[in-house]
Specification:
- It is built from six helices and no strands.
- By secondary structure, the chain is mainly alpha-helical.
- The protein has one domain (3-156).
- The N and C termini lie far apart (81 Å).
Length: 157
């Protein structure tokens, strides 16, 4: 075998092994992206769950706040003081700040349907349990041009 044929043979082997290395690298990167995406779902889920837990803990541990939330079971509680009204609006805003990013993440395909459904049903439970929160959420949602309908359908707007 002459030098030119030998050089071509080495070149062919180099291309072959280079192609295998490219395919292996692409496979490795695909696995890393998949793992990172799953990790992102879990991290986001944990953050939302933690924040919801903090809100619930505040309600449970503060008897005044618990009494206020009991009043929120009526759609329009008549006997709210201005301070209580402000607290109810603040609680409604806290829930919006938890669930709006969930909705955005789902629409941007950054959250699976299964994760979204868990949080959507929890938000719906909160809004149905405390209807006074819903009426206080609507002005904030309108201000940011957001709607509850992506979560619950057009009947909620």
């Amino acid at each position: 075998m002459d030098h030119q044929a030998f050089a071509e043979l080495l070149g062919n082997y180099g291309e072959f092994f280079g192609a295998i290395a490219v395919v292996a690298t692409l496979g490795y990167l695909a696995l890393q992206v998949r793992q990172n995406t799953r990790s992102s779902y879990v991290t986001r889920s944990a953050a939302v769950t933690h924040r919801l837990g903090e809100i619930q803990e505040a309600i449970v541990c503060d008897s005044d706040l618990s009494a206020l939330m009991a009043k929120c079971r009526d759609a329009e509680p008549a006997d709210l003081t201005p301070t209580e009204e402000e607290r109810v609006r603040g609680i409604a805003d806290m829930y919006i700040k938890v669930f709006a990013p969930v909705n955005t993440a789902y629409r941007n395909a950054e959250m699976t349907e299964a994760y979204f459904e868990v949080f959507r049903s929890e938000f719906q439970r909160i809004v149905e349990t405390y209807p006074a929160l819903k009426s206080r959420m609507l002005p904030t949602l309108q201000h940011f041009d957001m709607k509850l309908s992506p979560l619950f359908g057009p009947a909620f707007d």
